[in-house]
Design goal:
By secondary structure, this protein is of the alpha/beta class. It is 34% helix and 22% strand. It has a 6-stranded mixed β-sheet with strand order 5-6-7-3-8-9, with helices on both faces. The termini are far apart.
Length: 308
């Protein structure tokens, strides 16, 4: 495995079967593949969202990106800028990965584990606590912290240290949290990203996707989409297929649907409006884009009325 500050992280033709012990078999007797011929390249400082239905292979891929390799893995992994050591990974259930009794202890354990120099220890603990907004809760036991605060402590511990972490993986880190706590975790991940950390963000929540965000969509262990979120929701040229009837000779299949996920209401509406000729590409994703799209449609209506 090669390593270099500016080299991309690269997985090539990675295939993973069930673990050697207890290999999972499909009903027809074939060995169950958790990932199939997966190619992924991640550049330094990128934000990559991984989406997909339950069991599609998101966590398997996320763990491999973090450097935690399964027993039966074929293909190549070049960690590049991510370095030789495993990257920090934050999981869905914060309590499952917390060793300490309080945020301060948790961060201290993580620093000890990573071999941080003793003379910098206290300052690094305080910096990590402050970055996560947990300075006032440093010595509170987990029971008195919300799920979001526990998750923030897990991220703070995973990323504590003098060095900026090149890559951090968050595997459905917000799925157990309410909106306020989710926003807090997202704020911390965004702050890490602004400092140049590459963030791999596994999520089931499609409302977390921004139009230009890179989205890798998984289905049955394969990548069915690797492109931006707008293309993921609405499809691109690559997703145009022959239509069912002569009225619609061509139709665009949303990669979101191809991944076996339900298209959220607003994107479904946008596709329908495009089909009716009332909305053009690029179709809206954000609230601001929807506002502009509504204005455009209002103008179109007024023009129609004037022509008549
Ligand atoms: N240790 C394991 N040994 C064998 N098979 C496994 C193991 N872990 C996961 N699998 C199987 O691999 C497939 C992919 O699982 P994975 O956890 O990566 O999916 P996921 O998309 O993250 O799912 P979820 O959203 O439910 O967490 C699933 O069919 C799962 O049953």
């Amino acid at each position: 495995m090669a390593s270099g500050d500016n080299e991309p992280f690269a997985l090539r033709a990675v295939t993973v079967y069930g673990d050697v012990i207890g290999i999972a078999r499909e009903h027809d007797g074939d060995v169950h593949a958790r990932l199939l011929e997966v190619d992924v390249t991640i550049s330094p400082g990128e934000w990559v969202a991984i989406v997909g239905a339950n069991g599609s292979g998101k966590s398997t891929l996320a763990r491999i990106v973090a450097g935690l390799y399964p027993d039966v893995m074929y293909g190549e992994a070049e960690r590049g800028f991510a370095g030789h050591r495993a990257s920090p990974i934050v999981l869905q259930q914060p309590r499952a990965q917390l060793f300490g009794e309080t945020p301060r202890e948790e961060i201290a354990f993580a620093l000890e584990w990573s071999g941080a120099p003793a003379e910098q220890f206290d300052a690094l603990v305080e910096r990590a606590l402050a970055g996560a907004g947990l300075s006032g809760l440093r010595d509170e036991p987990w029971e008195s912290l919300s799920g979001g605060q526990q998750q923030l402590a897990a991220i703070a511990a995973a990323t504590a240290g003098a060095e900026r972490k090149p890559l951090v993986v968050l595997d459905e880190a917000t799925s157990m949290l309410d909106d306020r706590n989710r926003d807090e975790v997202m704020r911390l991940a965004t702050a890490l990203h602004r400092q140049g950390t590459a963030v791999v963000w596994v999520t089931q929540r499609l409302d977390e996707l921004l139009p230009d965000m890179r989205v890798i969509a998984m289905k049955d262990g394969r990548i069915v989409h690797d492109g931006n979120a707008r293309e993921f929701l609405y499809g691109s040229r690559a997703d145009v297929v022959a239509g069912a009837d002569s009225d619609a000779p061509f139709t665009t299949i949303s990669p979101c649907l191809r991944a076996g996920l339900r298209l959220p209401y607003m994107p479904s509406l946008a596709l329908e409006l495009r089909r009716l000729g009332r909305l053009d590409d690029p179709l809206p994703v954000t609230a601001d884009e929807w506002r502009m799209a509504r204005e455009r449609m209002g103008d179109m209506k007024r023009d129609d009325a004037t022509i008549r």
